[in-house]
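Quick one: structure tokens for this chain, please?
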Amino acid sequence: MMPLTFADVGQSQIIKRIGGSPEVKKHLEDGAKSRLLRSTRVRI
């Protein structure tokens, strides 16, 4: 495994583990959920 900051721009990566305090993990989880909700909204 390598830090995500070492990944090449534009190349897909699979995140296998997220480190950090419970607060950091919760923050990242909440951000991912909000981005998912924004990307699945449909405009009529």
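Helices lie at 22-39.
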